[in-house]
Write a structure and sequence with these properties.
161 residues, alpha+beta, globular, 5-stranded mixed β-sheet
């Protein structure tokens, strides 16, 4: 019973409860920790050999072409998934803005947990980033913020709505 209640809990309520328990915002805390650990993770990933090591090397080569914190975070998480011998295509879904919402909803209907990005063709920076849990989408609008320092954990995403 508790498991179903937690699964159906709105994202805002999860964030509010996390804040109440820890006095820290969930998303900002996660992103800050990811940013703090990225260099250490890169060192660990560099030791990967074989096909896994090559996949990680290819992802990180793309990441090094961009000076964008969201792209670096995305590629770090993808590399982490590969490092643990999982398929990143099961966790990360990418769509072009030309895809319809119905197409996106159908392709993630059976997704237990995933992260999606929507991009314009030929542009690496996403227009929308979100989380899919139990087939339900929680979108975020990606934005830059002029009053926050580059690389700040709160710099790039805000809840849509």
């Amino acid at each position: 019973m508790k498991e179903n209640a937690a699964r159906n809990m709105p994202k805002q309520q999860v964030n509010a409860e996390f804040l109440q328990i820890t006095t820290k915002p969930l998303q900002a805390k996660f992103l800050a920790q990811l940013d703090n650990l990225t260099d250490k993770l890169m060192q660990i990933f560099q030791g990967s050999k074989g096909a896994k090591g090559q996949k990680i090397k290819d992802i990180m080569a793309i990441s090094s072409l961009y000076d964008d914190i969201d792209i670096k975070r995305e590629h770090t998480l993808k590399s982490l998934v590969i490092y643990f011998n999982e398929d990143p295509d099961l966790l990360f879904k990418e769509y072009l803005t030309s895809s319809t919402e119905d197409e996106r909803l159908r392709s993630t209907a059976a997704t237990v947990m995933g992260i999606y990005t929507i991009r314009r063709e030929g542009i690496q920076e996403p227009e929308d980033v979100g989380v899919v849990t139990e087939g339900h989408h929680e979108g975020f609008v990606v934005q830059t913020s002029d009053h926050l320092p580059a690389g700040s954990p709160a710099c790039k995403t805000r809840r849509d709505g």
